[in-house]
């Protein structure tokens, strides 16, 4: 073996001989395929986000949120309704197997199993395929979940009494109720407050007694003979008590 024979020197082109400043590459040769993150790509993201933000703000100004009256913890007749993205759980709790003594099943067990299965889907189907037909387990679980959510949300919307919901949450003019008045005590003695509320603001099953615009005679006739969903015979007092009740309700004027 001669000196210098059999020895080779290999250079690695990935290691630059001199350090260069961190300047973005020129992507003009590849238009539309790739670009520098800063500032090109990030600027476009900011512009798109700004357009959507301005559009969302315009919608909130043109269509403000439908606020309801101040929450009253003493109003047991009020039926709360969750936001649209929780309507499927709200509907699930209406069924006999997920409500009453089985509330834990509908509120914890069934949703826990559903969301747990979604979390485990990537571990149950670990194949490299990206086609839906090649991943039946993950795709099947996802389609089943979407179908259940859509069906329960739709059922919740079509079965809910939206007129009663709007009535119970309507903002009404305030009026000072004298709860020591004899007419109020007569209302309380005849269980009128159960439906009309402690502040006579009304509820899903009964209208407000404030600012009815009715005469004492009309109010007395309704209290005695009923009207709409209110049956006759609820009032059990005397004619004198009926008169005081009617005068009290007729005198409730909205401020």
Automatic annotation (TrEMBL):
Residues 178-253 form the Cytochrome c domain. The chain crosses the membrane at residues 46-63, 102-124, 136-154. Keywords: Electron transport, Heme, Iron, Membrane, Metal-binding, Transmembrane, Transmembrane helix, Transport. Heme c binds at residues 192, 195-196. It is a multi-pass membrane protein. It is found in: Membrane. Component of the menaquinol:cytochrome c reductase complex. This is Menaquinol:cytochrome c reductase cytochrome c subunit.
